[in-house]
């Protein structure tokens, strides 16, 4: 029997059952990939995080979906750091801390600032890579919308994990969006590399609350849950797209998950000029909902 300490953290929120949940498993170097994937399926979460040793950073973590590893993910990063802070593994005696976290995509600079309602975790995502553009009619068909519901030209953007950013004309259209699973499978056949995946991240300008500047949805295919409550990596990609195309200011508040009853918020700041952004700072808070021990026989 092997035992692993874990925390269940709701990321990009300050309250229980908000934002996006993530189980963070500590000391997970010896935990097999099959068990890592099985835990994601057991929790019915979109991702779980596994804290491991690192030779190049202060901490290491690896993130997994239900069927594969994902090299960079935003809400598991916030959840991992919130868990480290909650367990006293990050020194916040001065009210703030800076350190590095190695994930599958590389090393992320992390800043934590103690606030009255909990620690604010900010990751600096790498300089965005702007990939191929996708015809608006293809994305519209993929999410069951009309072509004129899409503003501009969708484009694949990556700040560690690629997403196809599509601006939707209004919230009424965004609410109508439904993922066409058959078309998704046709556009992303088995074996498609993550870099070639067409996974639309849908965004409207204007938040769901008075504080928000954008509101987004990420619709997911099986075996994942049908929708992600908050997607920190895609938020970085979306921010780079909007900034690059002159649609948003360098600092803004991104909102997601409110229509699912799991409101989430990220404070975003773009680095560098519009024509060539050098990075994206995405900040959020985490609420540790559960603490416990994972027992796995035979590992």
CATH architecture of the largest domain: Roll
Order of adjacent strands in the largest pleated sheet = 1-2-3-4-6-7-8-17
Q: Beta-strand percentage?
A: 35-45%
According to CATH, the fold-level topology of the largest domain is Diaminopimelate Epimerase, Chain A, domain 1
Looking at CATH, the homologous superfamily of the largest domain is Diaminopimelate Epimerase, Chain A, domain 1
Q: Which structural category do the helix and sheet elements fall into? A: alpha+beta
Based on Cα principal axes, name the global outline: globular
CATH classification, class level of the largest domain: Alpha Beta
Give the % helix: 10-25%
What sequence of helices (H) and strands (E) makes up the elements?
EEHEEEHEEEEHEEHHEEEHEEE
Give the low-confidence spans. none
Number of domains: 2
Rg estimate, integer Å = 18 Å
CA distance, first residue to last residue:
7 Å
Question: What order do the helices and strands come in, and which of them pair?
Answer:
Layout (H helix, E strand, L loop, with lengths): L1 E10 L8 E6 L7 H11 L4 E5 L6 E6 L4 E2 L3 H13 L9 E8 L2 E10 L2 E8 L3 E5 L2 H7 L7 E9 L3 E7 L2 H6 L4 H7 L12 E6 L8 E6 L7 E2 L3 H13 L6 E6 L7 E8 L7 E18 L3
Parallel strand pairs: 2-3, 4-6, 11-12, 13-15
Antiparallel strand pairs: 1-2, 1-17, 3-4, 4-5, 6-7, 7-8, 8-17, 9-10, 10-11, 12-13, 13-14, 15-16, 16-17
Helix pairs in contact: 2-6
């Amino acid at each position: 029997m092997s035992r692993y300490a874990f925390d269940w953290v709701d990321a990009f929120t300050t309250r229980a059952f908000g934002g996006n949940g993530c189980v963070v498993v500590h000391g997970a170097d010896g935990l097999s990939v099959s068990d890592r994937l099985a835990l994601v399926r057991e929790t019915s979460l979109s991702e779980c995080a596994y804290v491991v040793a690192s030779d190049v950073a202060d901490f290491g973590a690896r993130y997994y979906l239900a069927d594969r590893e994902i090299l960079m993910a935003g809400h598991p990063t916030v959840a991992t750091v919130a868990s480290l802070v909650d367990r006293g593994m990050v020194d916040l005696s001065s009210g703030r801390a800076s350190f590095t976290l190695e994930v599958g995509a590389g090393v992320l600079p992390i800043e934590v600032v103690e606030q009255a309602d909990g620690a604010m975790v900010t990751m600096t995502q790498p300089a965005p890579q702007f990939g191929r553009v996708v015809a608006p009619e293809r994305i519209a068909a993929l999410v069951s919308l009309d072509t004129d519901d899409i503003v501009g030209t969708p484009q694949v953007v990556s700040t560690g994990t690629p997403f196809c950013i599509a601006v939707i004309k209004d919230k009424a259209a965004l609410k109508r969006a439904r993922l066409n699973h058959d078309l998704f499978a046709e556009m992303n056949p088995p074996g498609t590399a993550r870099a070639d995946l067409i996974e639309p991240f849908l965004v409207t300008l204007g938040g769901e609350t008075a504080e928000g500047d954008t509101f987004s949805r990420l619709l997911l295919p099986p075996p994942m849950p049908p929708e992600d409550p908050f997607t920190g990596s895609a938020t970085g990609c979306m921010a780079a797209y909007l900034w690059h195309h002159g649609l948003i200011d360098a600092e803004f508040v991104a909102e997601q998950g409110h229509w699912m009853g799991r409101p989430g918020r990220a404070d975003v700041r773009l680095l560098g000029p519009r024509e060539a952004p050098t990075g994206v700072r995405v900040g959020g808070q985490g609420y540790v909902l559960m603490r416990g021990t994972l027992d796995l026989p035979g590992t």
